[in-house]
Amino acid sequence: MKEKAQARREHLQKMRAEQKRKERRMAFLMWGAGGLVIVLLVGLVGFYLVKQARETSLEAVSNYSYEAGQHVWKTVSYKETPPVGGEHNNYWQQCAVYDKPIHSEHAVHSLEHGAIWITYRPDLPKAQVDALKKVATSTGQQDYMLVSPFPGLSSPIVVSSWGHQLKLDNPEDPKLGAFIKKYQNGPDTPEPGATCGGQDAIVTTADQSPLPPEPTGQQPMQNATPSPSQSQQ
Predict the structure, then answer these.
(1) Up-side HSE of residue 225: CA atoms within 13 Å toward CB?
(2) What pLDDT does 124 receive?
(3) Among 51-55, 113-117, 136-140, which stretch is predicted with the lowest mean pLDDT?
(4) Tens digit of pLDDT for each residue in 179-221?
(5) What is the torsional sign of CA 82, 189, 112, 199?
(6) What is the pLDDT of residue 217?
(7) Cβ-based neighbours of 92, under 8 Å, separated by 6 or more
(8) Which strands make up the sheet holding 164-168, listed edge to edge?
């Protein structure tokens, strides 16, 4: 009897020991699987952040330095295409989306007030122009957004602010939105928050009105504003 009882005890001990080994193995597998999931999640998040940072990187932005407040009535010959600063007309361009080129002299004045100027090649496919306008009208402050075609661009799309410029090939490039968010009314804006509209703003395209003539005598500035033949607002 004693031998049988001892055998039972040994058998139970072995069963308990085996059960504990199984429990340890299961716990190890569960912790290992959980750790693997965590590692994978961390890796995926890290990959996403690196990818996003790369896609929105503004390292390709060209930077320039221009003195502000240089108001002139003449046609200006700019170094950059399109211009990003320097001399400009006394009147600024109404911030809006235009389907025809506008005078650079007016647009630069808008840049001085904090606007973003998105320009594109006149032969850009309509689908891309529509995509570009969609980004422009859904990102940043619409009161400080200019969009217009511009002949002679070195890239399909060029986005500019005062002193900064970025060339793009695709209207859906995430860098476009990143540029708008960083430079619209940004720290380098000479007159941040100054109006990009109002009664003195130019609402015509370049083919509709020439640059306004220099006022003579005591003629008020607003009286020299050309009468728009068609509003592009």
Answers:
(1) 19
(2) 97
(3) 51-55
(4) 999 999 999 999 999 999 999 999 999 999 999 999 886 444 5
(5) positive
(6) 64
(7) 106, 109, 110, 112, 113, 195, 196, 200, 201, 202
(8) 62-63, 164-168, 157-161, 116-120, 145-149
How far apart (Å, rounded) are the C-alpha atoms in residues 105 and 166?
Answer: 20
This prediction has a pTM of 0.74
What is the CA angle 126-121-162, rounded to 5?
120
Determine the Cα–Cα distance for residues 202 and 125; give it in Å rounded to an integer: 27
Instruction: For residue 117, give the H/E element and its range.
Output: strand 116-120
pLDDT for res 231 = 35
Amino acid 152: pLDDT:
95
Q: Are 201 and 195 in contact (CB under 8 A)?
A: yes
Count of CB atoms situated within 10 Å of the CB of 188: 17
**Would you call the peptide bond into 82 cis, given omega within 30 degrees of 0 as the criterion?**
yes
Amino acid type, 73: W
Q: What is the CA radius of gyration of the chain?
A: 32
For residues 182 and 146, give the distance between their C-alpha atoms in angstroms, rounded to a whole number: 16
